[in-house]
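User: quick one, sequence for these C-alpha cells?
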C-alpha cells in the first residue's frame, strides 16, 4: 500500500494530484497558463489525468505503463475536445510519474520531471526525464542572482517559459502529457526485481527541491528523512526550507513555493532488515 501527501503552494489552487491503489501509484504535476485554451483549468486536468490513467492500469494490470498513460491522456482529451482549444500553447499539460508493484518486479514510469525513486539493495535508482532542463535550461540557472518580485526575475522567468513552450511536445524537444496520447511513448521507464526492493516513492518536483534544485540532500539522505518524517512531514520540511529563503538568495528558483506531492510505498519489513 501507499502513503500519500499533497500540498498546494500557499495561496494557489493545487495543480498536483496523487492517487494510489494497493500496488499502483500515480503522481501528476500539472502546468499551463490558467484557462489558456481550456476553461476547466490545470487542476481539473491533473485530477482527470490521474484518475483516467489509474483506471486504465487497474483495468488491465499487465498492460505496459506507457500504454496505460496513453489511454489516460486520450480519455481526458475526449472529455473536452469539443469545448476547449487543445491546440492552444497554454492548454493544460502535466508531468506524470507511475509506480507499479507486481509479484516479481517493480515498474516505474516518468514523463517529464516527476521522479520515481526505487531504492534497491544496491542503492537508489531514479527514473526522471530532465529533457526540459537539457533543452530549455534549468530553473536555478535562469533566475540566478535575481530576487522574487523583481522585474529581472519576472523577465527571466518569462523567457524561460517561452523557451519551454516553444520546445514542448515536438520531436527535437521535450515531452509532457497534454492532448496527444503519443506523448506517452516518450516517457522514461524502468523495471527492477522485487527481491532487490528496499523502498520506493513517486515525487512531484515540488517535493524534490531539496535534492535537485537546492542540492541540500543526496537521495539516500532524503529517503531516510522521508522514512523518519512521513510524506506530510517531508513536505512540511520542504516548506520550512523555502520559508527560510523567502527571496531566493540562497536557492534561486522560479517560484518561492511549488505544489508538492508524493506517494510512498509502505513495506511490511523494517528498513534495517530489508537493507541487510
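Assistant:
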Amino acid at each position: 500500500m501507499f502513503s500519500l501527501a499533497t500540498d498546494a503552494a500557499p495561496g494557489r489552487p493545487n495543480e498536483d494530484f496523487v492517487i494510489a491503489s494497493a500496488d499502483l501509484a500515480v503522481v501528476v504535476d500539472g502546468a499551463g497558463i490558467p484557462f489558456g485554451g481550456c476553461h476547466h483549468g490545470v487542476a481539473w486536468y491533473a485530477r482527470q489525468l490521474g484518475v483516467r490513467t489509474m483506471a486504465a492500469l487497474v483495468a488491465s494490470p499487465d498492460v505496459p505503463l506507457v500504454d496505460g498513460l496513453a489511454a489516460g491522456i486520450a480519455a481526458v482529451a475526449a472529455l473536452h475536445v469539443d469545448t476547449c482549444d487543445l491546440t492552444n500553447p497554454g492548454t493544460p499539460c502535466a508531468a506524470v510519474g507511475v509506480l507499479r508493484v507486481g509479484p516479481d518486479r517493480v515498474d516505474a514510469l516518468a514523463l517529464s520531471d516527476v521522479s520515481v525513486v526505487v531504492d534497491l539493495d544496491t542503492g537508489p535508482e531514479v527514473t526522471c526525464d530532465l529533457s526540459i532542463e537539457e533543452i530549455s535550461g534549468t530553473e536555478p540557472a535562469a533566475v540566478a542572482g535575481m530576487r522574487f518580485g523583481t522585474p529581472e526575475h519576472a523577465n527571466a522567468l518569462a523567457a524561460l517559459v517561452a523557451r519551454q513552450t516553444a520546445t514542448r511536445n515536438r520531436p527535437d524537444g521535450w515531452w509532457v502529457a497534454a492532448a496527444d496520447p503519443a506523448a506517452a511513448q516518450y516517457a522514461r521507464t524502468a523495471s527492477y526485481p522485487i527481491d532487490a526492493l528496499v523502498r520506493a516513492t513517486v515525487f512531484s518536483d515540488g517535493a524534490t527541491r531539496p535534492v535537485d534544485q537546492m542540492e541540500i540532500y543526496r537521495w539516500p539522505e532524503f529517503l531516510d528523512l522521508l522514512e523518519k518524517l512521513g510524506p506530510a512531514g517531508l513536505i512540511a520540511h520542504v516548506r520550512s526550507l523555502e520559508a527560510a529563503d523567502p527571496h531566493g538568495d540562497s536557492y534561486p528558483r522560479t517560484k518561492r513555493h511549488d505544489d508538492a506531492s508524493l506517494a510512498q510505498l509502505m513495506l511490511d519489513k523494517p528498513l534495517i532488515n530489508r537493507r541487510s
